[in-house]
TrEMBL record:
The protein's name: AI-2E family transporter
Species this chain originates from: Halorutilus salinus
Pfam families: AI-2E_transport
PANTHER family associated with the record: TRANSMEMBRANE PROTEIN, TRANSMEMBRANE PROTEIN 245
Residue stretches spanning the membrane: 7-38, 58-80, 135-157, 191-212, 219-241, 247-270, 290-317
Length: 331
């Protein structure tokens, strides 16, 4: 390697590290904008012949924000109300005196659980008040990240195709291998988005309808929780409708409990198999264990948004390895 090439590689390395330093604080918002841009791009392409490049890139963002923000805001208010009501119901039905008697019987010490819980809540409140600066820092970071997300989403829709062409020219790969890599990345992203995320939302809504039909209390709260649970393999929405069926049977609503169980086993469970096979080829899907690692690792690395981004990142990694395996010898 001559000095010129070495110096050029040094500049690339240093500039890459500096770019990573700039991008890292908002990496989850950047990846989220690319992911949502991928989902909205077909809509943008359909609108472009009629509305032009700029308007067709902006309109899907407005529609997506309206369809996401408005229902989530309304649902959040109701969910909070349901959560408060649920906690009150638990407080009303949970006899702390019985627990105190059991503790006294086995230990000989009288414990005031209500006072202990009250003290714990008070200490937590003081800790939160003492860390208001951190709370304000988190809020400002979220606001900046959300603003960045919206702007990036617009430019992903508007200039994303040009960026893909540019990146293919920059990467030191033969054109046919670069095309194969991008095709594989697109297929894997579609597999994760439509095969896991969209199916999770559909399953949660279907199960929520069943909960409302049989009269399960706080149904909207549990539907909201199922959107997150449904992404987890094995556990899924059964974690809600299964115990709910048992709850109904134990409270005297045997018919409703059986009906909910049958509904869950048939329509909800079959919807998973049907939708995954219809929306995306199963050969492109990820192993449930890999999805679980992506979900938990994404949450740990990026917070709540990592719940959706984590599996996509692992899917892209799998696609890259597949292209490497099939084309390494020809490079």
């Amino acid at each position: 390697m001559n000095q010129r090439r070495g110096f050029l590689l040094l500049i690339i390395t240093v500039s890459s590290l500096l770019a990573l330093l700039v991008l890292l604080p908002f990496v989850e918002y950047i990846i989220a904008s690319v992911l949502l841009g991928y989902v909205l791009y077909p809509m943008k392409e359909r609108l472009r012949p009629y509305l032009g490049e700029s308007v067709s890139s902006f309109l899907p963002i407005v529609l997506a924000l309206f369809l996401l923000v408005v229902p989530l805001t309304v649902a959040s208010v109701v969910v909070v109300q349901d959560a408060v009501e649920l906690s009150r119901n638990i407080d009303a039905t949970f006899d702390v005196t019985a627990v105190e008697d059991v503790v006294y019987e086995y230990t000989g010490d009288r414990v005031d659980i209500s006072e202990t819980l009250g003290s714990a809540v008070e200490r937590i409140g003081r800790a939160l008040v003492g860390s208001l600066s951190q709370v304000f820092g988190l809020v400002s970071r979220v606001l900046l990240g959300t603003t960045l997300f919206i702007f990036l989403l617009y430019y992903v829709l508007k200039d994303g195709e040009e960026f893909v062409v540019w990146s293919k020219d920059v990467f030191p790969l033969p054109p046919e291998i670069a095309d194969r890599l991008y095709d594989r990345l697109g297929e894997m992203t579609a597999a994760v988005v439509y095969g896991h995320l969209l199916v999770a939302v559909v399953q949660s809504v279907l199960t929520g309808v069943g909960l409302v039909a049989v009269g399960v209390p706080n149904a909207l709260f549990w539907t909201f929780m199922m959107v997150f649970l449904a992404i987890l393999p094995i556990v899924g929405v059964f974690f809600v409708w299964g115990p709910a069926s048992v709850y109904l049977a134990l409270t005297g609503e045997v018919g409703a409990g059986v009906a909910l169980a049958v509904y869950g086993v048939t329509l909800v469970s079959l919807s998973d198999n049907y939708l995954r096979s219809y929306l995306v080829d199963r050969d492109m899907g990820l192993n449930p264990g890999v999805v679980l690692v992506g979900v938990l690792g994404g949450i740990y690395a990026m917070g709540v948004i990592g719940l959706f981004i984590g599996p996509v990142i692992l899917g892209a990694f799998k696609a890259t390895l597949a292209v490497y395996k099939n084309n390494y010898e020809s490079l």
